[in-house]
Amino acid sequence: MTPIRKAISKAMVNSKHTAPHVTLFDEVEVSALMAHRKKYKQVALDRDIHLTFLPYFVKALVAVLQQFPELNASIDDANKEIVYKHYFNIGVATDTDRGLLVPNIKHAEGKGLFAIAKEITDNTQKAYDGKLKASEMSGGSITISNIGSIGGGWFTPVINQPEVAILGVGRIGKEPYVNDDGEIVVGKMQKLSLSFDHRLIDGATAQRAMNLLKQLLHDPELLLMEG
Q1: MF terms per GO, please (predicted)?
Q2: Can 198 be counted among the known catalytic residues?
């Protein structure tokens, strides 16, 4: 094993041995989100920024963590205490030739979509080049794992200890769904998987957090109103 693969292996085993994982599977219709990204994609490119869907997920997770602080916490096993975090550092799992790395968007609550998009791109390049600092991969609040970009759907992501939750982002596909008017239409359905540490987070809390996440992703104007 390479040093990075050894570290990943140790972290995954530790997470599964430490936290009783539960995963929620859900989906949300994201036609409006796709239209919003399409509208501003060229504006971003004019600023040398690659606008993907990930910045929207980062912003949405910040809003979710603000309303559900249990998801922005860690468990101090030695002292049997819950440690609540007062910052919002959103990790983005990055697949590289050397293995999986998770740089954080530090203090994402104070950044706009373009700034987040640029930071994701910069962090990804650093990960590929082997130039990420340890400080850029520590102190996370929650992690996003995106397999939708390579065709994946629902899955069971492993929590990035000492965090207590991880969001799995799957593919967007055309599927029938019932809209707000009760009509069966073809929508753009986004697959979501939320794994959480059942020692700290109850299923009902996790689903309420998922419901808010879905609401924000379904309505990007509401998402931007959240800041």
Answers
A1: dihydrolipoyllysine-residue acetyltransferase activity; lipoic acid binding
A2: yes
